[in-house]
Design goal:
about 55% helix; mainly alpha
Length: about 350
């Protein structure tokens, strides 16, 4: 006789029925192992990797399921439909618990609890390393006592102190003369004042003060002296360059003589057309200070890539005027300058 077909629904109903069906024979006792509590969950050590944490979770899940349950699930596959969601939910909960330390560690620290960096307090060592204030300069009597001594008896500091004191005295004298020139511009015509101004110009300690005085004094003579500095070989190059820069100022040219203005225009001309425009004024007002700029007009070389081209080709049809201008400025002497 063939065996009856297996009915899953009837099997589940028979298993979970509150009242077992009567049987002709007494049921044989079934030994059921007592369900042991699941082993305690051991949190992985701090710093454990994710793989170690998942392995611990897997062991926790496997140990948590009693052996009789596993046996019953093998015999009744339908029970997996009920048990599987529960197991998955439990697994997700355990994984969340296992990863909780990592999430807590990655959570940003609240703003209120953020650490504040306090400025470092000044230590006694740092305070002691601050430079001490410079000692007060000695009075004139002390410096005079040092000046009376032989240089080979002075220390380096004393020698520098004497030099500094002398330079300060010279600057005070130069400032005093500059003040007098501003108050009395006609003093620039005095030969003694001119000599003193040029002496101060030649001294590096007072050169800038003296040049400033010449530039600011509303006198044509003072501007003539300033021009002489630009052409002198008795002063440092830096002093000569500063004098030339001051002469280029519109404030200085406003008080310059017509002859000096012509000389400055010819010197500053950068094209043949600019020189041609300045020729009439040079012929009528220029003096010997314009000769250096006019003398180069006779040259027919010096321009172009190979320096063989004529730089003043626009004047070749006006060479008679160029020659007349050169002769005119030769006849006018420049203001006599006092030798340095």
């Amino acid at each position: 006789m063939p065996a009856p077909a297996f009915d899953p629904a009837a099997s589940v109903a028979a298993t979970f029925s509150a009242e077992p069906a009567p049987s002709a024979t007494a049921p044989s006792p079934v030994f059921v192992a007592p369900s042991l509590p699941p082993p305690p969950f051991v949190t992985p050590r701090a710093g454990a990797s994710l793989a170690d944490r998942l392995a611990a979770v897997q062991a926790r899940v496997v140990d948590a399921v009693p052996a009789p349950w596993l046996e019953l699930l093998r015999k009744q596959p339908v029970l997996w439909m009920v048990v599987t969601p529960v197991v998955l939910a439990t697994l997700l909960i355990v994984i969340a618990v296992a990863l909780a330390p990592e999430v807590e560690k990655a959570r940003p620290e609240p703003l209120a609890r953020a650490r504040t960096v306090s400025p470092p307090s000044a230590s006694p060592t740092a305070a002691s390393e601050e430079p001490s204030p410079a000692p007060p300069a000695p009075d004139g009597a002390a410096v005079a006592a040092l000046e009376s001594k032989s240089p080979d008896t002075l220390s380096v500091e004393e020698v520098l102190l004497v030099k500094q004191h002398r330079a300060e005295q010279k600057r005070n004298d130069a400032q005093g003369l500059a003040t007098k020139l501003l108050q009395q511009p006609d003093l620039a015509k005095d030969a003694a004042v001119q000599r003193e101004l040029l002496r101060l110009v030649a001294d590096p300690d007072t050169a800038e003060l003296a040049l400033t005085a010449l530039a600011r004094t509303p006198s044509a003579v003072a501007k003539d002296l300033l021009y002489d500095v630009t052409t002198s070989r008795a002063v440092p190059v830096a002093t000569s360059e500063l004098a030339a820069s001051l002469l280029s100022s519109r404030d200085v040219r406003a008080n310059a003589s017509p002859a000096l203005v012509v000389a400055l225009e010819l010197r500053a001309a950068s094209s043949c057309e600019a020189i041609r425009a300045a020729l009439p004024k040079a012929q009528s007002e220029g003096d010997r200070r314009s000769l250096s700029s006019l003398g180069k007009l006779n040259s027919r070389r010096g321009c172009g890539a190979d320096k063989t081209e004529d730089c003043y080709g626009c004047l070749r049809s006006q060479m008679k005027q160029v020659t007349a201008t050169i002769n005119a400025v030769k006849r006018r002497k420049a203001p006599s300058s006092v030798p340095y």
